[in-house]
Design a protein that fits this description.
The protein is α/β, with parallel strands linked by helices and about 240 residues long. It has 7 helices and 14 strands. Strands 1-2-14-7-3-5 form a 6-stranded mixed beta sheet. Strands 4-6-9-8-10-13 form a 6-stranded mixed beta sheet. It has a two-stranded antiparallel ribbon with strand order 11-12. Strand 8 and strand 9 form a beta hairpin. Helix 5 (about 180-185) runs antiparallel to helix 6 (about 200-210). The protein is globular and about 50 Å long. The protein starts with a strand and ends with a strand. The relative contact order is 0.20. The chain binds zinc ion. Zinc ion (ZN) binds near residues 161, 163, 164, 220 and 223.
């Protein structure tokens, strides 16, 4: 395996438990062609037995055999899950189950893992510009708090950078209607010739407003050959962020 990054959310109290997380890219799996090597998605045209093996390898990075994988829909639905499997039409999953990995897939959108290692609550989230406007990240934080989380930390994974993400005016006008000024000014960027969206900066602003300490894996999917990018490649695989108690 050759993950993009692995890390650990450490508890602040003796009763807490460390929470492992990992971010994957292209390297280290068994897929080939445009899905080489570590595609984690069943829905992009890759061989499903290879995706199964890739998901097993990815789960092992955080020490689990099975994961609940969200099948994102660019919405704001958050589900509390207790079993492995696929969460359909869901952009965020939350659990308190030890040994159950949570996996968010992306190929330009921002995958996010969150944890309160003292309360034993974790989440995985998928967020593109639509999810940013709909507030999927604060919605996931709300569900974590409903299950006892108080001190939440987060890591945002590889995503398309603002320079590589020009958007149309329709996107900007949607975000203007949906977001408060503090988040909007960080994510909607007027470069004169073209509007751009910095989804990662928007996610970080939303998390800051929720008092969530957040770190970033600042790698751009569109320009980094070790990452999958839908914008750059079209038919391609998906990388993931995985977290487990
Ligand atoms: Zn870029």
């Amino acid at each position: 395996m050759n993950p993009v990054a692995v890390g650990r959310f450490r508890p602040a109290t003796p009763g807490g438990r460390p929470v492992n997380w990992a971010a994957t890219g292209r390297l280290g799996g068994v897929s080939s062609g445009e899905f080489a090597e570590l595609n984690l998605s069943f829905t992009v045209g890759d061989d499903s037995s290879r995706v199964d093996e890739n998901r097993r390898l990815a789960g092992r990075l955080v020490g689990v055999e099975q994961c609940n994988v969200l099948d994102a829909k660019h919405g704001a639905l958050v589900q509390f899950v207790t079993e492995p499997g696929i969460s359909a039409a869901t952009d965020a999953v939350v659990t308190t189950v030890v040994g159950l990995g949570l996996m968010a897939l992306a190929a330009d959108c921002v995958p996010i893992v969150l944890a309160d290692p003292d309360a034993g609550v974790i989440a995985a989230v998928h967020c593109g510009w639509r999810g940013l406007g709909l507030g999927v990240v604060p919605a996931a934080v709300d569900v974590m708090r409903e299950h006892g989380a108080t001190r939440i930390k987060a890591v945002t994974g590889p995503a398309i950078c603002v320079d590589c993400y020009p958007v149309g005016l329709d996107c900007i006008s949607d975000l203007r209607m949906q977001l408060g000024r503090e988040v909007l000014q960080e994510c909607a960027i007027d470069r004169g010739d073209q509007w751009r969206v910095d989804v990662r900066a928007g996610v970080h602003a939303q998390l800051r407003l929720e008092s969530v300490a957040t770190w970033a894996i600042e790698r751009c999917t569109a320009t980094d050959p070790q990452l999958f990018s839908y914008r750059a490649n079209g038919r391609t695989g998906r990388q993931g962020m995985i977290v487990a108690l």
